[in-house]
């Protein structure tokens, strides 16, 4: 299964938008940029909480970087109306008070100390404060109706404890790393995520212009449960098709959901000096979970769109400029903050990762 949704992002999103207008080009066999939401979500905070997996636990076992609405708290009950509780969002579209989060990337020096790797803004989203780029997509054949997530909906992709490929081949294939050795390249702009230019684990060589990590969430829902004990069983990947929004959903999960993609780009430029890398030739990056392989990359999602805003956007196949939605500038989004409830050193050179997880390959 090749993942093609964001194969043109982030490079063509900016380059062609400048040349052809903000909607970008039409790509034969795929969506144009006017056909899917692509937007900035700046950093809300970076701390050890996880209202999905360890609700109420502060600090949680490992560090997360979190974006979205400021209703964020260590415990967020499914009955909570996030869009009514939040007063601002770090995302471009002001009706999106959802929370999105991932693990945090660290560099391990050969002397054993750790340094958090900062996130960098994406092309076409200059001014973003850390955070990530988020995508929502409806099937681009425009024949299949997608149903927006319901209040209280939440899900998880990946597992922080994986140190080998996910037992679900679709989940495994939905995660990809790309090492930029030239500005946003050298991969061709139309190279598919998960293709020959990507790896499923940390790259073994320096990435002087950044490291991009993508993950695609499942697109099929059981139509009943907004969550499940493992935060995965209520959703599924399609049973057929080369791309999630094309294949048929399994009979157990017949309802088609929007395709969500997280795109995080880590600014690894300060860590390319090989004299800092391990002497045994291994790569030096590690996630905040203690994962030195990259297999444990994961993403969490709590739905918090206001009213029917997301459904309207999906019905109209909205893109970067979506007249169906209210929008704020990235500078305005950057003003939305939420004080951390767990305060501990996370910057500068540290003797151990926050929470001191066990390092493992």
UniProtKB/TrEMBL annotation:
Domain DUF1996: 50-305
Secretion signal span: 1-21
Pfam families referenced in this protein's UniProt entry, alphabetically: DUF1996
Species assigned in the record: Podospora didyma
Keyword Oxidoreductase among UniProt keywords: no
PANTHER family with a match to the protein in the record: DOMAIN PROTEIN, PUTATIVE (AFU_ORTHOLOGUE AFUA_6G11970)-RELATED (PTHR43662:SF3), PTHR43662
Protein name in the entry: DUF1996 domain-containing protein
The keyword Signal is assigned to this record: yes
Domain of life: Eukaryota
InterPro entries: DUF1996
Alphabetic keyword roster: Signal
């Amino acid at each position: 299964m090749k993942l093609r949704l964001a194969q043109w992002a982030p490079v063509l999103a900016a380059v062609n938008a400048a040349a052809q207008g903000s909607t970008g080009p039409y790509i034969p066999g795929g969506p144009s940029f006017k056909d899917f939401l692509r937007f900035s979500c700046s950093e809300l905070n970076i701390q050890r909480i996880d209202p999905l997996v360890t609700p109420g636990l502060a600090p949680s076992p490992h560090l997360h970087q979190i974006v979205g609405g400021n209703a964020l708290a260590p415990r967020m009950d499914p009955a909570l109306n996030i869009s009514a509780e939040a007063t601002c969002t770090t995302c471009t579209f002001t009706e999106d008070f959802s929370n999105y989060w991932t693990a945090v990337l660290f560099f391990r020096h050969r002397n054993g100390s750790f340094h958090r790797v900062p996130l960098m803004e994406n092309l076409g989203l200059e001014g973003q404060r850390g955070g990530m780029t988020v995508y929502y997509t409806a099937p681009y054949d425009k024949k299949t109706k997608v149903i927006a997530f319901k209040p209280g909906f939440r899900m998880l992709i990946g597992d922080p404890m994986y140190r080998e490929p996910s037992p679900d081949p679709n989940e495994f294939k939905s995660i990809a790393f790309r090492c930029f050795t030239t500005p946003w390249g050298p991969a061709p702009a139309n190279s598919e995520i998960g293709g020959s230019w990507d790896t499923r684990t940390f790259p073994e060589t320096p990435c002087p212009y950044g490291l991009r990590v993508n993950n695609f969430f499942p697109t099929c829902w059981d139509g009943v449960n907004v969550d499940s004990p493992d935060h995965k069983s209520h959703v599924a990947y399609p049973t057929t098709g080369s791309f999630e929004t094309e294949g048929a959903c399994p009979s157990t999960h017949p309802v088609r959901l929007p395709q969500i993609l997280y795109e995080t780009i880590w600014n690894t430029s300060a860590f390319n000096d090989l004299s800092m890398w391990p002497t045994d030739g291994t790569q030096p990056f590690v996630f905040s979970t203690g994962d030195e392989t990259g297999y444990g990359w994961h993403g969490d999602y709590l739905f918090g769109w206001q009213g029917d805003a997301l459904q309207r956007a999906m019905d109209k196949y909205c893109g970067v400029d979506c007249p169906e939605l209210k929008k704020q500038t990235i500078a305005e989004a950057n003003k939305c903050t939420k004080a951390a409830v767990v305060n501990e050193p996370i910057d500068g050179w540290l003797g151990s990762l926050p929470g001191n997880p066990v390092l493992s390959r």
